[in-house]
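Figure 3 (text version): structure tokens given as input.
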């Protein structure tokens, strides 16, 4: 008793997907990373558990699964927040985002999927980094992330360090300032070629 009720975000993975051990591992990893980092601009996590088949959540279709709860961060993603903003605001939000990446880098980890959609700007204008499902230790050669932001070393299967996140940050910064990606209409093959040779 005495604790003030507050809304939480719930991230769920239903059984049809949880049977894929790699997806369940990503859900567990995201929870562990956030529990370990404990930073005011990274969502605080609370509980990890199993969902019953009759949980009634949208998308469950009578299946069970797994979940974790985290602090609810409401706001706009970074691209929307910067759409009509002056350059000074864009630079400030970009700097905040880079500092949040540095929290991970200081622990020897890379985010693995940095992009404007994974930064939420709250009603006070503060940036929060989200989506830690692809976080891994530096030195990994795992190809994962979003094609528009992939560093060349990831595409080539080489070991990656924090510079892979900084490359993604650079692409995102271009997008925030110019208003579009360097290759806005490209398909995945064209994007990968551009990252390697453009």
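Below: residues designed for each position.
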């Amino acid at each position: 008793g005495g604790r003030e009720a507050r809304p939480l975000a719930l991230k769920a993975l239903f059984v049809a997907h949880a049977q894929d051990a790699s997806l369940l591992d990503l859900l567990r990893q995201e929870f562990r990373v956030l529990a370990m980092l404990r930073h005011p601009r990274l969502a605080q996590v609370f509980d990890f558990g199993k969902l019953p088949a009759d949980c009634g959540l949208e998308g469950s279709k009578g299946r069970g699964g797994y979940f974790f709860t985290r602090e609810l961060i409401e706001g706009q993603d970074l691209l929307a927040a910067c759409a009509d903003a002056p350059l000074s605001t864009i630079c400030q939000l970009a700097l905040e985002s880079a500092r949040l990446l540095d929290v991970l880098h200081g622990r020897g980890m890379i985010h693995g999927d940095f992009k404007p959609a994974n930064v939420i700007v709250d009603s006070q204008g503060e940036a929060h980094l989200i989506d830690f499902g692809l976080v891994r230790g530096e030195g990994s050669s795992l190809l994962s992330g979003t094609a528009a932001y992939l560093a060349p070393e990831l595409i080539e299967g080489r070991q990656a360090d924090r510079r892979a996140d900084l490359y993604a940050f650079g692409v995102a910064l271009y997008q925030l300032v110019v208003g579009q990606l360097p290759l806005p209409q490209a398909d995945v093959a064209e994007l990968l070629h551009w990252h390697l040779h453009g």
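Residues 87-105 form the longest helix (19 residues).
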